[in-house]
Amino acid sequence: MTIKRSALKPILTRDRLVKQHLTILKNLQYESGLFAASKKNVTTGYDKSWLRDNFYECLAFEVLRDWQTVEKTYHALLEIFLKHESKIDQAIAKKPEHKYQHIHARFNPQTFDEFWEDWGNKQNDSIGAILFTIGELEYKYRRLIIDTDDKIRIVNKLVKYLESVRYWEDDDNGVWEENEEVHASSVGACVAGLQSIKQLPCINVPEYLISCGEKTLNDLLPRESKTKFVDLALLSLIYPYNIVTKDQRVKILENVEYLLLREKGVIRYKNDHYYNRNPDGYSEEAEWCFGLSWLAIIYEHLGNKEKAQTFIDKMLKTQTKEGVPELYYSHTNKPNENTPLGWAESLFIIALHDMNEKFINTKPKPIKGHPHTIHRFLKLVGKKK
User: Fold this and answer.
1) What pTM did the predictor assign?
2) Which residue in 237, 263, 295, 365 has the fewest CB atoms around it within 10 Å?
3) How many Å apart are CA 308 and CA 9, to the nearest integer?
4) What fold does the segment set 48-229 form as a domain?
């Protein structure tokens, strides 16, 4: 059978774009394994490493099965927690009363030191996100991440940390690092993380930790919080966490698309003041590019290829020579200086990749028990000899 040249072009274009943006994303990684949030010479502070950003930046490498990159990053993240273990111990012994007592959100990507200044550091979702991926990597993808006694200990302490702060009723700063209140996206990330990590026999997760989070989540949804009716961060509960019911998912998508969708991206929430400045004198919310990729991924996974393609078409127009920006000033072609944004690059890659993949068939089915139990036992015993 002869394949028409026109039929090959979309595939070749997609593969070329994936490779191009994968190169951009890889260039944000430091030798330590951690990723910068944006390019390493940016003056906005985005040369630093955020826990959450590393989670999202690694998603593309997980989808492409680049386990070497993923494992290097997650080993580095665990080393961060080990370096600051005494602080975690203090938070477990007594619920933190001040922001600085929480696990911080940003770290030096080379020394693993925390940036101690106030930065909306109460971000429970970042801990849930990391637990979620470690569980996924070990249980679903058969990758050995918590491969030492130290790492087993620190992951168990991350669970105890969420227990101590009572994440299901904790006023944290949320995904956007702003006002303190209970956020559905934060609670959902923790629920998903605890459900995922609980599958590992070496990690102890009390059942009530999950049920308390589920109750709060169901009470809040489809709202993000008391002050926010709808928020871009709610998409995380659909992908990657898949933690909502069908009805909740439908309502979240309906609200996001109706109230937040714009031409160059998705605004985070109504009356968002971050980069809320236009040269023409009108002030409207900035349009976040990765929102388009996020919606494309969700609709791809739901099997709605037509709607996914609509968002991909919009998504492709957000590219610059440097990569995908964090955002565009509203109703303009002007991106902000955080270009490329690692998080945006990762979701862009996933959306392009998944458009021509059958999602259900690409992920291995979970197996009973933990695939590395014997491997870990032999490895740890061998080290003690």
Assistant:
1) 0.91
2) 365
3) 19
4) Glycosyltransferase (1.50.10)
